[in-house]
Design a protein that fits this description.
Elements lengths: L6 E2 L6 E6 L1 H8 L4 E4 L3 H13 L3 E7 H4 L3 H8 L6 E5 L11 H9 L6
Parallel strand pairs: 2-3, 2-4, 4-5
Antiparallel strand pairs: 1-2
């Protein structure tokens, strides 16, 4: 499902897109964010790759339901400074399980940070 105009990031000028289950995509679509509804991890992986390769996309919001299955790809995207930022967003029926920022950074870097 793709929205009409899309939402942009102020400073970067790029679009924000969402990949996730129907409720997540429809909910964010109400804010003008374009998205792709996916029903399984294989479709989510394909949609994420398309979003990462689309010119003008600055941020990909990835539904929590698929973020766990695609963790390696998300972490690879995190170190690619030329590509879009991938952000995991909670799904309406998902468990958020708040993860501290330092723990997320440690996962991406593959090392422990002393704070």
């Amino acid at each position: 499902m793709t929205g009409a105009g899309g939402t942009t990031l102020g400073g970067r000028g790029g679009r924000i897109v969402v990949v996730g289950p129907e409720d997540t995509v429809l909910g964010l679509g109400l804010l003008g964010i374009e998205g792709t509804v996916v029903a399984n991890a294989r479709d989510a992986a394909a949609a994420l790759e398309r979003a990462l390769a689309t010119p003008g996309v600055a941020m990909v919001l990835l539904g929590q339901a698929w973020a766990t299955a695609l963790r390696d790809r998300i972490e690879a995207a995190a170190v690619d400074t030329d590509g879009p930022l991938v952000v995991e967003v909670p799904d309406p029926d998902g468990v958020t399980g708040d993860v501290p920022l330092t723990e997320r950074v440690e996962r991406v870097l593959g090392m422990r940070l002393e704070v």
